[in-house]
Design a protein that fits this description.
- The protein is an alpha/beta fold.
- Helix content is about 30%, strand content about 40%.
- It has one domain.
- The strands form two sheets. The protein has a two-stranded parallel sheet. A two-stranded parallel ribbon has the order 2-4.
- The longest helix has 20 residues.
- The chain starts with a helix and ends with a strand.
- The mean pLDDT is about 80.
Amino acid sequence: MKHRRNVAFVWLALLFVAAIGRIDAAQALEIRGGGDVVIGAGEVFADDLYAAGKTVIVDGVIANY
């Protein structure tokens, strides 16, 4: 009986490791904050942008490819 529990534990551990391996790597992100946040017309963000402030102006490009 103890042997079966050990085998079951090993299989569950392997399944867990395999599931973790399928998770994508963390994506890049940019965080901007303050009173006034301005994303200029020439700025391009190829991923996520989190902006918080009293005023947030986005004249640039934010694209999540």
